[in-house]
Sequence to fold (225 residues):
Amino acid sequence: MKWYLHALRNFNNFDGRSSRTEYWMFGLFNTMFAILFFCIDVSFKINFEGHLFGPFYIVYGLFCFLPGLALAVRRLHDVGKSGSYLFLALIPLVGLYLLVLFCTESEDDENVYGEKPVNTDIADFILDDKTSTTIIVSYLLWIFLSKIIWTFIVNSSEKFYENPIYKYFNMFNNCIWMFLPIIVSLTVKNYKWKIILLICSVLYMVYGFYEFIKAFLLTSDRFQF
Fold:
């Protein structure tokens, strides 16, 4: 949470460098809050006509746009790239290179943008004995909870499948949510928790395949897992 607040306080700072930890921790909490406001709009049916997005989601998106942009620029500086690399996002497929840069380890030495930031290596941070269990378990719980919320949104909104974009987004979202838990569980250093989470993740993935096959056999557009 401190990384999220740190990014908000530095909303106008486009200089210096930001570590992978800072960038991805902000991304995690930002996504959680975005889903929360999205659910509020849908639950109270205050979303704009013909769209699932409502005022709470839009206001939050505008509120976090500048802090997120500044953080992305500082993250690019951390790997020795200019902030102008963000324009690659406008080019189909080529924009995926940005994801590689955001996952790249910081340059070891001081570069033209400043000194190496603290907590650079997020992999070491996650695998630390004192933090791995808490972080991974919390993240997996968030995955399952957000999936339940997303299922509720889709099933309670008749307009969701009227737009093919939302339908395909839901299919992509389901595929990501199906494989992500098993990948994340493998990173847990505590052996007991790794086995428990791995078993739960495999069961979740099997259930996901079952729902996918059932929807395919029924030739239905609506499938949730």
About this structure: The CA atoms of residues 25 and 31 lie 10 Å apart.
